[in-house]
Amino acid sequence: MIKIHDVDNFTAEIERRVREQDMEYLEAIVSYMQETGLDEVKIKKLMSSAIKDKLEEESDSLNRLGKRQKRFRNVWKWL
Questions:
Q1: DSSP letter string over 4-67?
Q2: In angstroms, what CA-CA distances link 12 with 22, 33, 41, 48, 70?
Q3: Is residue 69 within 8 Å of 35, Cβ to Cβ?
Q4: Percent of the chain whose predicted confidence (pLDDT) is above 90
């Protein structure tokens, strides 16, 4: 069950999904958005600097590898 939406709970939930469900950070965030119905404006407010840094690293890695870049391009714009 999803808890109250605050930065600490959001960060913990995203980290849990990445670790336990073998998701990438962006996938975990999109999954969270779908389950909670929160939009990108609210999600952006919940994102800690640690999550933003990990998303940036993930994006850089995808750009270097060239894999799945198109899949995430539109979603990454709002972050």
A1: ---HHHHHHHHHHHHHHS---HHHHHHHHHHHH---HHHHHHH--HHHHHHHHHHHHHHHHH-S
A2: 15, 15, 19, 10, 28
A3: no
A4: 61
- Is residue 19 packed enough to be buried (19+ CB in 10 Å), middle (13-18) or exposed (0-12)? exposed
Convert the pLDDT of each residue in 16-70 to its tens digit: 999 999 999 999 999 999 999 999 999 999 999 999 999 999 888 766 656 555 5
* pLDDT for the residue 58: 87
Residue 40 identity:
E
C-alpha 26: how far from chain center: 4
